[in-house]
């Protein structure tokens, strides 16, 4: 085998034809060595451990084990038994006694865990460079940021080192890296996948997310992991349903809320709108209250939740300088400020309601910009903040989202769009995302 099959269905067809899981793992090892990118994985199992994982697989039965033999990479803020968890902070390293429920459910469905991937430390960032380790190279443009915080997870799938990967998404960490590496990024309804076993960033908002090359594969992974967990205080029951008909009435930003940096981003957005499936109606919507919610996450007292979640886990000097700077910013806010923020969020949630009248979902650019590594070195904060324009508000408003690759920019770089809908509308977003990708490819 020279390359990993492009989908779960193709991989299972190859297995049915005689391909051995051990051959897949050997090919992935060879691929990793050939890439020469030390920033993707922070931990990889030994050859003996991988052989044991393969040997533990039940007899081939994809109906009973929908992820049988599927290689899955896991972000290194999610516990995998037998592998260290660090959240890209070596001073925080520990060895979990059990896997996160999401990971355990994947393994029970036949998945093979290929290792732990790099990230913006403590999942704080959208650029993928806030790590004490080598930065993963963007799979499409090595001089650009890989996107974060789930940088290694996105690059692992984009580079063919895993068919699926897990990220986390609090403010866009499962959507921005997808867009910047030409992938699907599924951000589930909040609480649908248990977050127990995840190093918290903002526990009230954290979601485990999925990177894949197709919506169908991302949905299959999500379906395995979703479900309540009575040991997780943030878990919430959900009825996923099955993707059916695609949505046809989509809200898009008005000109004054369309924030795109440079002609290449604007051209890609126009190309995406021009290639939507037949029957889709676009309706401009006032997204100003959504964008104000987005600003609350880092510019207001909500940043204090990060300090409460991980600020005391290690000494400040053990943190990446930018992570330390962000967490330290919580000190300027009081408990009174936090309640004022909650009150303003409630007002803005009410203000967003008119935007949903007459539409079934929002369609927005996933990211307004695509920073170079040099730009991040010159300004570690500004370009990162821009990346969250259309992602930061989603979890604060209890929404579901699905990022899909769109037509390439005129310069050949990837561009992505995101569908956003109310909690529990995940299946409808999945059906629509599939239709969009088919339209874009036509």
How would you describe this structure to a colleague?
This protein has helices spanning about 10-15, 20-35, 45-55, 100-110, 150-160, 175-180, 215-225, 265-275, 290-300, 305-310, 320-330, 335-350, 375-380, 380-385, 395, 425-440; strands at about 40-45, 70-75, 110-115, 165-170, 185, 210, 250-255, 280-285, 360-365, 400-405, 415-420. Helix 8 links the parallel strand 7 (about 250-255) and strand 8. An 11-stranded mixed sheet has the order 1-3-2-4-6-5-10-11-9-7-8, with helices on both faces. The radius of gyration is 20 Å and the shape is globular. It has about 450 residues and is α/β, with parallel strands linked by helices.
Helix % is 25-40%
* Largest sheet, strands/sense/barrel: 11 strands, mixed
Low-confidence segments, given as residue ranges, are none
Adjacency order of strands in the biggest sheet: 1-3-2-4-6-5-10-11-9-7-8
Number of strands: 11
Share of residues in strands: 5-15%
Order of helical and strand elements: HHEHEHEHEHEEHEHEHHHHEHHHEEH
Structural class: alpha/beta
Mean pLDDT: 97
Which overall shape is indicated by the principal axes computed on the Cα atoms? globular
Report Rg.
20 Å
How large is the count of helical segments?
A: 16
